[in-house]
Amino acid sequence: MLADRNRALTGHTAAVLAVCGTPGDRYAVTGDEDGTVRVWDVVTGRCVGRLGGTGAMWTRCT
């Protein structure tokens, strides 16, 4: 689905520690070192959602 598989998803300000794809591969979810979680539209490369850095980090992908 993603035409440019080398697309950079820019926006995190700390090291990205987790990456998960959604069913159908339309979205990717990333989590960084400061606890920020972002949801990306992988077709456009745009961030479509953000849950803000609490300093705590947890990850679960199923």
Written account of the structure:
With 62 residues, this protein is mainly β. It contains no helices and 4 strands. It has strands at residues 16-21, 27-32, 37-41, 46-51. Strands 1-2-3-4 form a 4-stranded antiparallel β-sheet, with no helix packed on it. β1 (16-21) and β2 (27-32) form a beta hairpin. The mean pLDDT is 79.
Furnish the topology, listing elements before pairings.
Blueprint lengths: L15 E6 L5 E6 L4 E5 L4 E6 L11
Antiparallel strand pairs: 1-2, 2-3, 3-4
Count of DSSP E strands? 4
Hey, roughly how much beta strand do the residues contain? Answer: 35-45%
Helical stretch tally = 0
Strand neighbour order, sheet with most strands:
1-2-3-4
Helix content: under 10%
- Mean of all residue-level pLDDT scores: 79
> What is the distance, rounded to the nearest whole angstrom, between the alpha carbons of the first and last residues?
21 Å
Which class of secondary structure composition applies to the elements? mainly beta
* CA-based shape: globular
Order of helices and strands: EEEE
Major pleated sheet: 4 strands, antiparallel
Q: How big is the Rg? A: 11 Å
Low-pLDDT runs of 5+ residues are: none
